[in-house]
Specification:
- The protein has helices at about 5-10, 30-35, 55-70, 120-130, 145-150, 165-175, 175-185, 185-210, 230-235, 240-255, 270-275, 295-300, 310-315, 320-335, 355-365; strands at about 75-80, 90, 95, 100-105, 110-115, 155-165, 215-220, 225, 225-230, 255-260, 280-285, 305-310, 340-345.
- With about 375 residues, the chain is α/β, with parallel strands linked by helices.
- It has a single domain (about 5-365), classed as Alpha-Beta Barrel (TIM Barrel), CATH 3.20.20.210.
- The strands form three sheets. The chain has a seven-stranded parallel beta sheet. A four-stranded antiparallel beta sheet has the order 2-3-4-5.
- α6 crosses α7 (about 175-185).
- The model has no long low-confidence stretch (mean pLDDT about 95).
Length: about 375
């Protein structure tokens, strides 16, 4: 079976020929090491920042080449900026993206990362939400996924990455202002989350119309290493889980599976993600935060697709032999019965050791063949 057939069987809790393998993202600097050449592209997992269609195509051409060379089974695309859009560049070289966050360039990752915000007052937020909020239906939003589908030709499964409303608003307001306004001006925080939710629903509808998208992954952390970033009661008060369920329902209406990404210790909110939000799966299952993928598999069985969970920290610091054992353990505990996509617990970022990354993939291919033999 080809990669897409393999993935579709796995995410429907059937055993394919072997456990599918992929990464949610590969830093441009790592792509260059894999391909052995310099790439003239811009990329950010956090936001749409490429305005040049030639550069956008060059990025997806390189991404496709990397994923084919490594042997991944799922390609992930990201939201495109509308036709003719111009990002505002600040005097110090930073970029202001369409959702109000300020980005700077990371030389190691060769990517833009969020470092600030344009929002200083509640009035700034109100003005943005009422007058300047982006349109998910603007022409060109789906440019990247359409191009990737064209060059992929049905070989690999296709996923699209969208942003979590809570995480986006948390970053856009900055954590200090988010928490302060959550208590002093809760209506503006709720309104911002609602606007991002409606925006995402428009994107999902558009992706569904294309007929080529198999997975939606919602990025943005709800947890850190200690647990949820807010008490679960505050998540409920802000209707975060209900907003996520609306995303899931729209994805399901379009025939697309929905996976939630979060780093950190997700265990305290897994029940909420399953019972309230109705997500199909979870990505990361962060072993560095004490998440045992075997425990999650045993608890949720065929109610939750597991996307992970070789420690990305270990890919940067441990030996090949240790990565082999960690990968075998992930397969042993998560792959029986299908429902498992092998990956790191985040992405292949700039500090990973390529020999460890390759060891993860090679071990997955060797020990992930069904029937599993452990």
């Amino acid at each position: 079976m080809n990669s897409r057939e393999r993935v579709l069987r796995a995410i429907n809790f059937e055993e394919p020929d072997e456990t599918p393998i992929t990464e949610l993202d590969v830093d441009v600097s790592v792509m260059e090491r894999i391909l052995g050449r310099t790439l003239n592209v811009m990329h950010s997992l956090q936001a749409a920042i490429t305005v040049d269609r030639d550069m956008e195509r060059a990025y997806y051409d390189a991404l496709y080449e990397v994923y084919r060379k490594v042997g991944f089974d799922i390609l992930y695309a990201y939201e495109s900026l509308p036709d003719g859009y111009r990002l505002e560049k600040l005097p110090d070289g930073r970029l202001m993206e369409q959702m109000g966050r300020v980005f700077s360039y990371d030389d190691v990752a060769k990517a833009y990362t969020p470092v600030g915000s344009i929002f200083q007052t509640v009035e700034d937020v109100r003005d943005f939400l009422d007058e300047r909020f982006p349109d998910p239906h603007a022409p060109g939003r789906d440019y990247g996924i359409k191009y990737l589908a064209e060059i992929n030709r049905g070989d690999k499964a296709l996923g699209v990455f969208i942003r979590e409303p809570f995480a986006h608003v948390w970053e856009a307001l900055t954590p200090v202002r988010f928490v302060y306004w959550m208590h002093r001006e809760p209506s503006i925080v709720v309104k911002f989350i609602e606007k991002v939710t409606e925006y995402n629903l428009g994107l999902i509808e558009r992706y569904g119309e294309l007929g080529c998208v198999d997975l939606i992954v919602m990025g943005g952390d709800l947890c850190d290493v200690k647990g949820p970033m807010l008490p679960p009661g505050e998540f409920r008060r802000l209707r975060i889980f209900e907003a996520m369920r609306r995303h899931v329902e729209e994805a399901h209406r379009c025939g697309i599976k929905f996976i939630k990404h979060t780093d950190g210790n997700v265990k305290p909110i897994l029940e909420e993600l399953v019972e309230t939000s109705h997500v199909d799966g979870v990505h990361s299952l962060d072993p560095s935060a004490g998440v045992d993928i075997g425990w999650v598999k045993e608890k949720f069985q065929d109610r939750l697709i597991l996307h992970g969970n070789v420690s990305v920290d270990n890919l940067a610091t441990r030996s090949v032999e240790e990565i082999v054992e960690e990968t075998k353990n992930a397969i042993r505990n998560a792959s029986p019965g299908g429902g498992h996509i092998l990956s790191s617990s985040n992405s292949w970022y700039g500090d990973v050791r390529l020999e460890n990354c390759y060891a993860m993939v090679e071990t997955g291919r060797r020990y992930g063949r069904y029937p599993l033999k452990f």
